[in-house]
Q: What sequence folds into this?
């Protein structure tokens, strides 16, 4: 018998996502992903001054603030062919990397770990055994028996009082939860420690960005962080030293806790390296520009076809026509007018709402394609492309993770295991380690440049008469982000944001090919349709962020999971 | 005394941005003393953990949907505040609800909380409040200033140059 499960909304994500699956013989046979809120940001920007666009775009989403700010200034600079001082690149890169490290840590520990970690089981653990296990794998300083006992006592307090609070909505005791109590305890301890560590990443963004949660230091043409090593009011030596201290703390946690936690948890869920594959055409863009024009990058980007790393084709810079000409968005299955795929510069955002129609329109998200095909974006795409490009730090941290995992399960774990739900989590941890290295690299380059006496931070933009167009690309935490702007006589004529979750959560495209979420869910086993934990595991592995950022909703809510027999 | 005034909401969705707009008005019209933090939180979540933790008092200003008529101004105190956020399954999952949950877990909840809010007239895309909500902004601002006075902050209005009559 076929059953239909509707999860609406998917919880522990940003934004309003609905997922429908049909289950046959205990496995998902069909899936639909539907964005349930309309994001009309593009309309707001029409007619405005392009210099102000980033201030509005960083309000699109509460999670991706700096991300949309960066992509926006890059788009306008690209339209103007405006180079920016290298100091500005380094300062932006530090913000980009710190924001991403923050985002990935929060995603793994606070938004998705509870799909795999049973908090209620952790109270049954032997803290001594847990500590021995953790310390055998890592030098992380907070794995001691004293620390783990304290965490366990705290958890007991919550569980025994019945006041689970933030842990109240977990699928505790679900048959798909496989971790031994000791591993649950280690993960729970790191969950709490990560709450502290994510503050350090956020502090770094705040020191450079001027304010949190919305940074203030950007400008089309550079940044506004005046550099003077001896002044109290600006970016001085004291602040630069403080930034380095924060980087070192993040470095310690990410490499000695996060990266290894993936191996420890993953060792008990290796079957999830076989689920959630979906679309294996991977797209990412280069990041961490090192020169004024954005032609040299620290982190490579490109495209991999059909999961085969030997097909890797690089995307070389902000102006690479291979990327610019390759992107189109279709709205055949989305609640907008017009079916045919359009290039973002010609993109339209005219809503046309209808009901949820399985074969027709069913989402507010459009379907992007890269040279005519859907593509998976995000840390997995990024890590596979960087590995294919021969990026040494990526290969190193991939090796650490797969070697540790292999030693725990007693067999070799290859790169093929990455094309999966587990692989998306593993790749995110690898990318976080790469980004922590990048923080160190960008900090040193900034210091060296200042040391040479270069304090330039800004080039003044000048808008020509007539029409110009530009694209700002950014390898954001959830993958490829591109902002496309058309400027006419110094005012915005058209603005389209093609966001990472559009690539991944998009519905079927103009040729009815399912998007990455939808494709990845097919074949996933469902042990209990009333508690579809397995669906959430795969959806959460993409780190959904539906970017509508409406945070107000009716107090009257229906149940989240609906199951009906077909 | 460590007090935070936190305006939250999305300014791109008209009345959804009331919390941020009140905070902006507070900063524009009053001198903010050095020992008071006034923050535009937007729709952020975990980024606000640092500034929320271990406060003596947090005043949250937000658009709320209690089922009451649009324009209804709401005042909640103490345990009512987290209770309000718990009762709604917000699509903004990383928002205030989770943040308060985390503050409980790490035992750094603000000692006291107040929420001032209003039920929105419109959530349409647009960066301005509706005219009707603009009037409620004045009421909420008055409430906020009075609450701060109760806490010992006598805010001094900035001297303003009135625009010339047209």
A:
């Amino acid at each position: 018998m076929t059953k239909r499960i509707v999860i609406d909304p998917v919880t522990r994500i940003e934004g309003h996502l609905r997922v429908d699956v049909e289950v046959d013989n205990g496995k998902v046979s069909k899936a639909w992903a539907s964005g349930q809120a309309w994001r009309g940001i593009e309309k707001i920007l029409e007619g405005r001054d392009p210099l102000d666009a980033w201030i509005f775009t960083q309000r699109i989403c509460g999670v991706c603030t700096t991300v949309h700010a960066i992509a926006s200034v890059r788009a306008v600079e690209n339209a103007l062919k405006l180079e920016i001082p290298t100091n500005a690149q380094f300062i932006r890169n530090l913000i980009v990397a710190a924001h991403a490290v923050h985002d990935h840590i929060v995603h793994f520990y606070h938004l998705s770990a509870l799909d795999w970690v049973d908090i209620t089981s952790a109270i049954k653990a032997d803290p001594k055994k847990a500590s021995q296990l953790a310390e055998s794998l890592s030098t992380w300083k907070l794995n001691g028996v004293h620390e783990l006992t304290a965490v366990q006592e705290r958890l007991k307090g919550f569980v025994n009082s019945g006041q689970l609070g933030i842990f109240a909505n977990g699928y505790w005791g679900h048959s798909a939860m496989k971790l031994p109590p000791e591993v649950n305890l280690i993960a729970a301890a790191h969950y709490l420690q990560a709450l502290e560590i994510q503050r350090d990443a956020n502090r770094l963004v705040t020191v450079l960005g001027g304010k949190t949660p919305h940074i203030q230091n950007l400008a089309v043409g550079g940044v506004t962080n005046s550099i003077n090593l001896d002044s109290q009011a600006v970016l001085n030596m004291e602040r630069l030293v403080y930034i380095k201290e924060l980087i070192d703390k993040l470095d310690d946690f990410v490499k000695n806790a996060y990266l290894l936690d993936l191996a420890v948890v993953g060792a008990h869920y290796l079957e999830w390296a076989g689920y959630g594959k979906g679309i294996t055409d991977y797209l990412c863009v280069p990041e961490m520009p090192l020169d004024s024009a954005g032609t040299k990058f620290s982190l490579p980007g490109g495209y991999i076809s059909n999961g085969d790393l030997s097909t890797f084709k690089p995307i070389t810079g902000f102006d690479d026509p291979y990327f610019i000409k390759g992107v189109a968005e279709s709205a055949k299955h989305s609640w907008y007018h017009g079916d045919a795929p359009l290039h973002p510069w010609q993109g339209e955002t005219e809503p046309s709402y209808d009901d949820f129609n399985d074969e027709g329109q069913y989402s507010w998200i459009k379907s992007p394609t890269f040279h005519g095909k859907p593509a998976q974006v995000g840390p997995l795409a990024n890590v596979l492309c960087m590995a294919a490009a021969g990026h040494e730090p990526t290969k190193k941290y991939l090796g650490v993770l797969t070697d540790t995992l292999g030693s725990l399960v007693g067999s070799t774990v290859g790169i093929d295991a990455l094309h999966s739900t587990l692989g998306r989590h593993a790749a995110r941890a690898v990318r976080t380690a790469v980004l922590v290295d990048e923080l160190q690299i960008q900090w040193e380059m900034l210091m060296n440049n200042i040391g040479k006496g270069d304090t330039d931070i800004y080039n003044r933009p000048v808008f020509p008469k007539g029409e110009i167009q530009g694209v700002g690309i950014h390898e954001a935490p959830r993958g490829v982000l591109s902002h496309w702007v058309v400027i006419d006589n110094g005012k915005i004529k058209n603005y389209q944001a093609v966001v990472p979750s559009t690539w991944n959560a998009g519905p079927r495209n103009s040729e009815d090919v399912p998007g990455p979420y939808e494709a990845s869910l097919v074949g996933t086993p469902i042990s209990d349709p009333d508690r579809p934990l397995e669906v959430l595991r795969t959806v959460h592995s993409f780190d959904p962020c539906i970017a509508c950022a409406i945070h107000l909703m009716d107090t009257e809510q229906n149940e989240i999971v609906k199951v009906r027999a077909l | 005394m460590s007090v935070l005034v936190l305006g939250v909401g999305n300014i791109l969705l008209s009345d959804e941005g009331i919390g941020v707009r009140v905070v902006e008005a507070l900063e524009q019209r009053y001198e903010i003393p050095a020992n008071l933090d006034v923050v535009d939180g937007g729709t952020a979540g975990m980024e606000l953990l640092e500034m929320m933790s271990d406060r003596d008092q947090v005043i949250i200003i937000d658009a709320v949907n209690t089922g009451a008529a649009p324009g209804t101004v709401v005042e909640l105190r103490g345990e009512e505040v987290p209770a309000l956020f718990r009762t709604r399954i917000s699509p903004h999952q990383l928002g205030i609800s989770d943040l308060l949950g985390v503050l409980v877990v790490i035992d750094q909840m603000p000692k006291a909380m107040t929420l001032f809010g209003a039920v929105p007239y419109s959530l349409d895309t647009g960066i301005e409040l509706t005219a009707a909500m603009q009037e409620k902004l004045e009421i909420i601002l008055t409430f906020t200033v009075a609450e701060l006075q109760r806490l010992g902050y006598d805010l001094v209005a900035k001297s303003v140059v009135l625009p010339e009559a047209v």
The first helix of chain A runs from residue 41 to 45. The first strand of chain A starts at residue 3 and ends at 7.
